[in-house]
Specification:
Elements: H1 2-15, E1 40-45, E2 50-54, E3 60-61, H2 66-78, H3 99-103, H4 114-124, H5 130-145, E4 151-152, H6 154-163, H7 165-176, H8 184-195, E5 197-199, H9 201-207, H10 209-212, E6 216-217, E7 222-223, H11 227-240, H12 246-252, E8 257-259, E9 264-269, E10 273-278, H13 289-302
Antiparallel strand pairs: 1-2, 1-10, 3-5, 4-5, 6-7, 8-9, 9-10
Helix pairs in contact: 1-13, 2-4, 4-7, 4-8, 5-8, 5-9, 6-8, 7-8
Bound molecules: glutamine.
The site of glutamine has 11 residues, from loops.
Length: 309
């Protein structure tokens, strides 16, 4: 598939003059320090080959992309029982919105908005001290990417805990409704650390490969989840992975995807491969501006959209 490398290089070259577009997230002060002109792309294909372009090897803050890995862990732990604590519908509102929580009795719409992810974190923590839950996630991500060099950026975690008033509000609100079982500070501590996972596009594409390969990782031979579970996680990524921009992403790209305010996006082409892109500038709804365009170009040039070429 050397054609694929040509396609990737072409997209990178065409978009390079636009590096720096969008707005870098500043509400987490540590993220505001990132060079807005960074731009990387990587593909891990189910046949074991990998492709990369630009800043594909440089670790960045994966932020909300970690919600996919935490959801996978929570499903492994509590199975379909998690759906009494969190819904499976798109929210149609911002990633950090609180409005629906009161109308909907403290049950967040889906696991990929902040409130839903905080509930999922609480599920993963069952029987664990916060430090152990963070360790479990780090081990899981290293196992998925087959890469023990992946770390958590403590500076980012600290920066976020110092300014995470909205997340504290969401967590307290859910706790008031009985939808958090651990102390709010403990759940938030784990949540901020998971968001601060630092991974490169190459590491992220490899970590997401199980979602493209019916739940197994062709690089390591590990069976991560069942094919049915991988399919369901992909469905949630497609419908909820880009907050109130999820419909637009499905329309333009047509792949399950999950974005983060660090400017990363993980996308899945089922049966083909997993794609990670990174460009820190965000669009109005908090998704990577150039990253979304790069994925739109890639899907158009490869015919990988799940809705047909
Ligand atoms: N959209 C995101 O990536 C949000 C994650 C970020 N850590 C937050 O909680 O605000």
């Amino acid at each position: 598939m050397s054609d694929l490398q040509t396609i990737l290089d072409g997209i990178h070259e065409e978009l390079s003059p636009r590096r720096g577009e969008g707005k870098v997230a500043t509400y987490i002060p540590e993220l505001a320090k990132v060079d807005p002109r960074k731009f990387g792309m990587a593909i891990a294909a189910v046949d074991g080959s990998t492709y990369r372009a630009g800043d594909a090897e440089e670790p960045f803050s994966i932020q909300s992309i970690s919600k996919v890995f935490m959801l996978t862990l929570a499903l492994g732990k509590a199975g379909e029982g998690i759906w009494t604590r969190v819904g499976r519908e798109p929210s149609g509102s911002a990633f950090n919105s609180i409005v629906q929580l009161e109308h909907e009795a403290g049950i967040p719409r889906n696991p990929f908005i902040n409130a839903g992810a905080i509930a999922v974190t609480d599920i993963v923590m069952a029987g664990h001290a916060p430090r152990e839950a963070i360790g479990e996630l780090l081990r899981f991500v290293r196992y998925l990417a087959d890469d023990d060099t992946i770390t958590i950026d403590d500076k980012v975690a600290k920066s976020e805990s110092q300014t995470g008033y909205r997340n504290a509000a969401l967590a307290n609100f859910m706790r008031a409704y009985g939808n958090l079982t651990h102390p709010v500070e403990h759940v938030l501590g784990v949540y901020f650390h998971q968001c601060a996972l630092a991974m490169s596009c190459v590491q992220l594409a490899k970590a997401g490969l199980f979602l493209a390969a019916r739940g197994g990782n062709p690089l390591t031979g590990h069976n991560v989840v069942s094919a049915r579970r991988a399919k369901r996680i992909n469905a949630l990524m497609l419908t909820c992975g880009h907050y109130d921009g999820s419909g637009d992403f499905a329309y333009r790209v047509g792949l399950p995807g999950k974005s983060g305010v660090g400017g990363g996006i993980l996308a899945v082409a089922p049966g083909i491969g997993s794609i990670a892109v990174w460009s820190p500038g965000l669009n109005k709804v908090g998704n990577s501006q150039l990253g979304s365009i790069a994925l739109e170009m890639l899907a158009a040039r490869t015919g990988w959209s799940v809705f047909g070429a």
